[in-house]
């Protein structure tokens, strides 16, 4: 029996181990009744513990064995004996978050339907950033409207209830989407806001799902994927982003909502400096080219080492060694391997094909600056 469908706020229960087995992947048990929610409908499984005469084992995962029978299989950290009486306890903090995600999804799907006649075709609730996939290409304005509507539904504090109806009675209920199961169908009603067939765990009122925040959306499989976060996780997201913005605001001596201005200014300055820097490097390479050709071995500023080496590739009959004051070097020309061996004797390390690049100990730079090395 799935107790979580009767009371999604209960966390402890007693049961008997009806079946227990192990295979190379793990240990499993089916219980006479359970509060553990098996992964389904986009909602992750519960975790927790089972206690008994054997001590305590962790419930790592729960899943439905077969849709037809619907038995809940508990994946355990250690084997337990069949027939044992156990006390189960689900990890409430995790479950509550799942209920917030899941209930928020009901609310948001209904809000999207109302705001833009958008139909939810798939959901993913297995991380704090949840998704709702819509059949239609959604417009920004409609999504914003749906987000506001979801906020109103939260503050309306609608009671949430689950009840069963027969397949024949279903026609009398205006469901958001047709049920996937037959026979007795479990319906979940959120006040007069939303009605859907669902076997999952839900909050007692819509207020507990808030806040519901749409994070972004994108085109997906001809429709739209909407990303959202809800409940504690939305609050944590807010805390994290607020803290980040506050730190940035402090660094820029501005208000958190004004941070964009100095960041853009910094970006503009960076682009301008990059352009200037490039022009200066090119001028410096040109200025150094003559001396490099003359001397073969040359001390050059590190930032232009590579650029100058590339330029010197045109003089393929000559060997060049360029050194930076910090000990970086670029080596090219027909005798580069021979020169590399000599540099290695000074403690250099490096490699490369056309241009050998590397570094040698800074105190050896003066010693390596010897034109005879390449002559
Ligand atoms: Zn549900």
UniProtKB/TrEMBL annotation:
<dbReference type="InterPro" id="IPR009000">
    <property type="entry name" value="Transl_B-barrel_sf"/>
</dbReference>
<dbReference type="InterPro" id="IPR018163">
    <property type="entry name" value="Thr/Ala-tRNA-synth_IIc_edit"/>
</dbReference>
<dbReference type="GO" id="GO:0016874">
    <property type="term" value="F:ligase activity"/>
</dbReference>
<feature type="domain" description="Alanyl-transfer RNA synthetases family profile">
    <location>
        <begin position="1"/>
        <end position="225"/>
    </location>
</feature>
<keyword id="KW-0436">Ligase</keyword>
<dbReference type="InterPro" id="IPR012947">
    <property type="entry name" value="tRNA_SAD"/>
</dbReference>
<dbReference type="InterPro" id="IPR018165">
    <property type="entry name" value="Ala-tRNA-synth_IIc_core"/>
</dbReference>
<dbReference type="InterPro" id="IPR018164">
    <property type="entry name" value="Ala-tRNA-synth_IIc_N"/>
</dbReference>
<keyword id="KW-0862">Zinc</keyword>
<protein>
    <submittedName>
        <fullName>Alanine--tRNA ligase-related protein</fullName>
    </submittedName>
</protein>
<dbReference type="InterPro" id="IPR051335">
    <property type="entry name" value="Alanyl-tRNA_Editing_Enzymes"/>
</dbReference>
<dbReference type="Pfam" id="PF01411">
    <property type="entry name" value="tRNA-synt_2c"/>
</dbReference>
<keyword id="KW-0479">Metal-binding</keyword>
<dbReference type="Pfam" id="PF07973">
    <property type="entry name" value="tRNA_SAD"/>
</dbReference>
């Amino acid at each position: 029996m799935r107790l979580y469908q009767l009371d999604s706020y209960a966390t402890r229960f007693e049961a008997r181990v009806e079946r227990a087995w192990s295979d190379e992947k793990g240990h499993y048990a089916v219980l006479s009744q359970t509060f553990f929610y098996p992964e389904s409908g986009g909602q992750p499984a519960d975790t927790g513990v089972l206690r008994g005469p054997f001590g305590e084992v962790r419930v790592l995962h729960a899943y439905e064995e077969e849709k037809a029978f619907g038995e809940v299989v508990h994946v355990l950290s250690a084997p337990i004996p069949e027939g044992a009486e156990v006390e189960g306890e689900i990890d409430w903090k995790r479950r509550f978050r799942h209920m917030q995600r899941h209930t928020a999804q009901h609310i948001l799907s209904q809000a999207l339907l109302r705001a833009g006649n958008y139909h939810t075709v798939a959901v993913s609730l297995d991380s704090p950033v949840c998704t709702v996939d819509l059949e239609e290409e959604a417009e920004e304005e409609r999504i914003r409207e749906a987000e506001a509507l979801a906020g109103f539904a939260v503050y309306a504090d609608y009671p949430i209830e689950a009840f069963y109806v027969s397949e024949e009675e279903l026609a009398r209920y205006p469901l958001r989407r047709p049920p996937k199961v037959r026979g007795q169908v479990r319906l979940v009603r959120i006040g007069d806001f939303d009605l859907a067939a669902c076997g999952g765990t839900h909050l007692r009122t819509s207020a507990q799902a808030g806040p519901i925040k749409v994070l972004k959306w994108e085109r997906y499989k001809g429709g739209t994927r909407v990303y959202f976060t809800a409940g504690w996780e939305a609050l944590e997201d807010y805390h994290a982003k607020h803290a980040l913005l506050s730190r940035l605001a402090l660094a820029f001596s501005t208000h958190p909502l004004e941070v964009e201005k100095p960041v853009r200014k910094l970006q503009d300055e960076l682009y301008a400096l990059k352009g200037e820097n490039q022009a200066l490097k090119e001028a410096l390479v040109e200025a150094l080219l003559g001396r490099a050709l003359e001397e073969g071995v040359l001390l050059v500023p590190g930032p232009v080492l590579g650029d100058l080496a590339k330029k010197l590739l045109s003089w393929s009959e000559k060997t060049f060694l360029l050194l930076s004051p910090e000990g970086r070097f670029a080596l090219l020309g027909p005798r580069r391997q021979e020169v590399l061996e000599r540099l290695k004797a000074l403690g250099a390390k490096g490699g490369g094909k056309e241009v050998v690049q590397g570094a040698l100990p800074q105190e050896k730079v003066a010693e390596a600056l010897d034109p005879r090395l390449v002559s």
